[in-house]
Amino acid sequence: MRTYKIKVTIPADHQLAVRVPDDFPTGPAEVIIQADSSAEQRIVKLAGVLTPQAPPSPQVDPIADVLQEFRHERQQRFEKLETNAGEQEDS
Predict the structure, then answer these.
(1) How far apart are CA 40 and CA 73, in angstroms?
(2) What is the pLDDT of residues 26-77, one digit of tens each?
(3) What is the DSSP secondary structure assignment for residue 23, as one 8-state letter?
(4) R_g over Cα of the chain
(5) In whole angstroms, what is the distance from residue 91 CA to residue 88 CA?
(6) In this structure, what DSSP letter does residue 1 have?
(7) Prediction pTM value
(8) Which runs of consecutive H residues, i.e. helices, occur in the chain?
């Protein structure tokens, strides 16, 4: 199986046209569209709060909120890995 990866930006009309290299095999193929993960989007969000156009209200600490989201997501991933490892040992 041969793979071709390209970064794209989904336009407002949600339509893409992709040209593959000329040496790519012809015939049936599978196309997978994968959106950026929520963690990557939060990194952009975090970067945006470091230099906001308007200062956040004093009642909101956006950096702490985003860090808490990261910690929660990391804990969920860790627990999932532990669960998967336990299931494999039981097999």
Answers:
(1) 12
(2) 888 888 887 766 555 556 555 555 555 565 565 667 677 778 888 888 888 8
(3) T
(4) 20
(5) 5
(6) -
(7) 0.35
(8) 38-50, 62-90
